[in-house]
Each structure stands twice: as C-alpha cells, then as structure tokens.
Amino acid sequence: MRVDVKVPDIRISQAHIKSEASVRTEERSAEDAKGSHLEIRHFLLSRGNSAAADRVFHVLMVLCALSIFAIVALIAWRLVVSSQLTWNRFGFHFFYQTFHDTITGQAMYWDPVNGLFSAVPFIYGTLVSSFVALLIAVPLAVLLAVFLTEMCPKVLRGPLAFLTELLAAIPSIVYGLWAMYELVPLLREYVNPFLSRLLGWTGLFANDNPTGLGFLASGVILAIMILPIISSLTREVMSAVPHSQREAVLALGATRWEMIRVGVLRNARIGIVGGIILGLGRALGETMAVTMVIGNTPEIHKSLLDTGISMASVIADQFTEAVSDMHRSALIEIGLALFIVTIIVNAFAQLLVWAVTRGAPSQAR
Amino acid sequence: MRSLTDNLVTVMAILATLIVVAPLAAIFGYLLYKGASSLNLAFFTQIPKPEGESGGGMANAIVGSGVVLALASVIGIPLGIGGGIFLSEFGRGTKLADAVRFTADVLNGVPSIVMGLAVYSLVVSVHSPWVPFSGHFSAFSGGVALGIMMIPTVCRTTEEMLLMVPHAVREAALGLGVPNWRSVVSITLKTASPGIITGCMLAFARVAGETAPLIFTALGNSFMSYKLNEPIMALPLQIYLYAISPYDDQHRLAWGGALVLIALIVIAVSLVRYVTSRGVLKGAN
Questions:
Q1: What is the C-alpha separation between B184 and B191, in angstroms, rounded?
Q2: For chain A, what is the mean pLDDT?
Q3: Which of A226, A288, B30, B167 is the most exposed place for a label (fewest CB within 10 A)?
Q4: What is the rounded CA–CA span in Å between residue A296 and residue A122?
C-alpha cells in the first residue's frame, strides 16, 4: 500500500500547485487506467459556462426594472392622446375660463350638454378640501407621533402603532361608506349648525346647505385618511434623531416638551415637512371617499359648509355617464392635470424624505 | 410656566391619540354592527336581485374580485420581483437603480383613478390589434389597471428583502460554481422569500380594496361572469354602486360587503405582521 503524503512547500506558487494536482492526477491515472483521466477532463469540460444564461437573466431583470419607466410614459402618453379633443378646442384656457349663464348671468363652469368645460371649480375644490384636511390632520399627526415616540409607555406603543397602521390599510371605499352614512348625518345635525353659529361671522361658515355634504365632510374624511402617512413618517424621522441631541437639551435643564421641541422636532423638521407634502399628495388624488361626501356640484362656493367638487371626484362621478366625446376628453384632461400635479408633489416630497433618510430604503410599512 | 406648557402638551398629545383612535373604533364598530346582520349564506352564494326585491347577495362580486386580482397578480408580481432583483443584485449603486427607485416611489403616489383612465384609453376606448380584448369594457382591462398599481410596491419590498440577505450566502453559492442567475433565483430569492411573499401580500391587500380604476375598465356586471373579455363585477365596485343607490336593501348589502372586504384586509395585514415579527426572516440572517 502506497501512502501519498505530500507536504506542500510554503513558498509554493500557482504553477507549483497546478503541477502538484496534475502530478497527483497523473499518478492516479497511471495506477487505474488512462480512462479515468479522460473521464475527469470530460466532466470538467461538459459543465460549460453560464455566460449566456447569465446574460439573458440580466437583460430580463433590466427589462422588468425599465417597466416602471414604461408605465409612467404609458400613462402620460395615453392621457395626452385622449385629451386632444378638449385641448384643441380650449387650449390652456380650459384651466381658468369662466362662462356665464345666458339667462341669469351667473358664473358657470361645467355644462356638458352645451359643450362648455372649465376646470376652475375642480381645482378650487381639490385645493380647499386638501387644505382643510391638512389643517385637521397635521397637528393631530405630529402630536400622535410625539406621543408614540416620546411619551408613550412601552406597553402601549406596539398596539397603538398597529392601530395606526390599520388606519392606513382600510380601503377608501370603506371610509367613503362610513363617512356617507355616519359622518355626514353627524355634521348635518350637530356640527354644521354649531359651526355656523360660532364662526358664521367669518363668512366661511354660512349654513345654506341642508345636506351635510361638502368641503368640511370631505376635509374631515381626508384628514383621517392622510393622518397615518404623516404620523408614520414623522415617527420615522423622529427616531432617526440621535439620542445625543435629546440628552444635550435635557442636560441644559429643559422640560420634556422643550426637549422634544428643540432637540427632536427642530432636527426632524425637514422630514416632517416631507411627510406633510406626501400626505398632501395623497389627499389631492383621493377619489372614492371624496366623491361620496363632497356633493359633486361644479360650482364655487365660499362657505366651507357648502357642497363642492374635486378633480378626482368628478372623474369617478361623471365618466361612465359622459354625454359626448368632448365630455370624456375634458374629464381625461382633468385626469392629466391631476397626474402632473401629483407627480410633482410626490417627487418633491420624496426628495425631502430622501434628504433626511439619505436615500436608504424605508422600512416596509 | 414652563412646566405648565409641558403638562399642557402632554394632555394635548394624549387627546390627539384618542381623537385618532376614535374614528377607527367607530368605523370598525359600525362595520360590525351594520354589516354582520346582512351576512348570511345567501350573501356568498347568490347574485344580486333586481332593484326593489329583497335578498340576493354578492357572489358575482366576490368571484369577480378573485378573477381580476388573479390577473393583476400575474401581471404585477413577476414584473415587480424582477425589478426588485435588478435593484438589489445587478444595479446596486448605479444611477439607473436610483432613478428606478425614485420613479417607483413617485408612481406609488399617482391616484388610482388616473391609472384607470390610462388603461381605459389604452385598452377600452380604442380597438387595436396589438392589445388583447381591446375596444370594450372587460375584466382584462381591470386586471391590467390593478396589476400596474402592484408593480412599484412589490418592486420596493422585494429590493428591501433581498438587501437583507447576507453576502456570505451569495458568495458561498458562487464559490461552489453555481451560475449567477441560478444563485439569485434558487438561493438569494429563496432565502428572502418569506419577506417577498409578505410584500406581495401587502400589495395584494392594497389593490384588493381599489375601486376607482375599475369603474370604467371592468365596469361591473349584475350577473356571474368568469370571462376576461366581458365586464365583471368586483367587491369594492359593488359596494360603491350599492352605496350611492337609493335602495335601503342595497345599502344593507353594501355594509356586508364592506365587512367582508375589511376582514380580508385585516387578515392579510395581521399575517404580514405575524410573519415579520416572528422572526421567520431570521433565516435571512
């Protein structure tokens, strides 16, 4: 029995190792037969290499990633193509023209039967309902985030965070259903008369509307819907503030609120603003809940308690019953305007959030 | 004075938390109260009765939702996972990957009704030989609209889960001579698969509740339908159409449908939390 004991030289180079292996191989094959040497060569050569498959796979994955650009391009292209009719007829005036009723002289904006289309009440309604939503949601969301990060007992933190996540997961149709049958009667019976008595002197709370639908209802339901977004982003940026900041402010003798205000919120304010703009972007595009409670009247009313309309709600409301190609084209042009506005707002918000979190992928929500 | 402000803010923060939790409790409470009474066997097995007649159910809506969501998943999940693989395996650090990530986040914020309009314009309004089932309302167009909404979400969560797989796993595979594509598919993807599945479930749950894109793509159907080239009903769409109708019976059914929809979504979200918190992802570490 031969014992192959080869003690390798420490200074061995690649050439030496190769020759070691080939020597061993040749020794073994010299013992067995020439055949096994050929078997090993055959085996090694038949593995092939995976360059072709790797290339194909790489190309496939790049195509999948490029599909995201393709989707944005596709949406933009189709919206522009399908709104050509209105664009050729009205041009840019579509977004600010005012018509006048032939008999009463009242300002009129949307008359599908006579082919008069103007986007003014929709832009106004979208802005007003989003503004009311932000007014209600931002203080609540920031206070909620402050409570959850700084003041909450550890035991409650998990369940409360879960509940806020649950708020974000509820589909908007369910919000709309609840708002239409519970929130609107509440507003109609109790809140609107109270508000118009209390704040009617401002001119913004005239209670001429007996239905309870309107900007206030849509503002409240939008506020409930954007609250989780603002609150979760605020919590994220607040947790990213290093503890040293908090400790430094406390060491200077601050109360807890002063510590939060100076040490945390001041450092996190860019991210909080980003979160607010992200919530605004969601509120601008929200359709189902708004279309069920805003009243869908294409007119401009000063009072917050009056009915209105928004860009997304009119599309959901009128598209399936559009009276003409021009009507459909006008609705698609409103959709195009909505698309551009939400892209700009969301891009701006994403840039702000990225500036704070340094482009790292955010936690899965 | 300063301690007074401090206490005041604490009280306001607690109040804010209660104000936030209250609508959640109200919504779930009303859903259970109003919805539970209208859920019976007929709800899940019968199609809607004509207006004015009582009874009937939402079987066609539930089946229709299944069909449309299946098509949406077939479109959205492969493309999304492919995008996520690109972002984490091939494009890490490149400008292209940054652009894709940014665009995906922005696309997430585009209103769903705009997606529906684009698909209407592409598939429904014009008959074209390049696009299948074009020229009329169809379940296919509804599935496409929901599918392209799923892609950005699936892409981002896949990327995040794949980033968590330690390099040692990939290097071990490559060291054994596994081809790169095989290593990504069979080893890296498989390691991150619990997280990827939860990401897909999150996207699925989000898209399952979407109504707006379906209003003028799938259009709705009062009868049971499985075909892709016919209009089809979906659960959230049926809830919307019933909610705005003038019949009390249909309002009752709408509440029942909303309860079913919420139950499905709560189950999906809870499963996601369970899987991620139980450390199933510990396999990736």
A1: 10
A2: 87
A3: B167
A4: 9
Token match 């664009």: residue?
A: A87
Kindly give, in sequence order, each residue whose CB lies less than 8 Å from that of residue B31, ignoring residues fewer than 6 positions away.
A174, A178, B255, B258, B259, B262
pLDDT mean over A167-195: 92
> Which of helix, strand or coil describes residue A93?
helix
When divided into structural domains, chain B yields a total of 2
| Closest residue on chain A to B178 (Cα) | A50
Q: Round the average pLDDT of chain B to a whole number and report it.
A: 89
- β-bridge pairing A107-108 and A99-100: antiparallel
Q: Tens digit of pLDDT for each residue in B255-277?
A: 999 999 999 888 887 877 777 66
The structure tokens 């009243």 sit at A295
Distance CA B238, CA A320 (A): 15
> Domain segments of chain A: what residues?
120-357
Select from B86, B118, B151 the Cβ nearest to the Cβ of A61: B86
The CATH topology of domain A120-357 is MetI-like fold (1.10.3720)
Residues B139 and B279 in one domain: yes
Residues B169, B214: contact at Cβ < 8 Å? no
- pLDDT at residue A202, rounded to an integer: 86
**Interchain proximity A57–B199, CB inside 8 Å:** no
Domain identity same for B163 and B232? yes
Q: Report the amino acid identity of residue A324.
A: S
Q: Identify the residue among B20, B160, B221, B250 best suited for mutation to test binding to A, counting A beta carbons within 10 A and taking the highest.
A: B20
Q: Is the pTM of this model over 0.90?
A: no
Assess whether B24 and B145 both reside in one domain: no
Boundaries of domain holding B265: 44-284
Is A97 part of the contact surface with chain B (CB cutoff 8 Å)?
A: no
Residues 121-180 of B with CB under 8 A from A: 121-122, 125, 148, 151-152, 155-157, 159-161, 163, 177, 179-180
Residues in chain A within 8 Å Cβ distance of B31:
174, 178
Contact, A290 vs A276, CB < 8 A?
no
Contact call for B107 and A72, based on CB within 8 A = yes
Element (H, E) at A293: helix A288-293
B7-39 pLDDT per residue, tens: 999 999 999 999 999 988 899 998 899 888 888
Give the pLDDT confidence score for residue B96 in this predicted structure.
Answer: 93
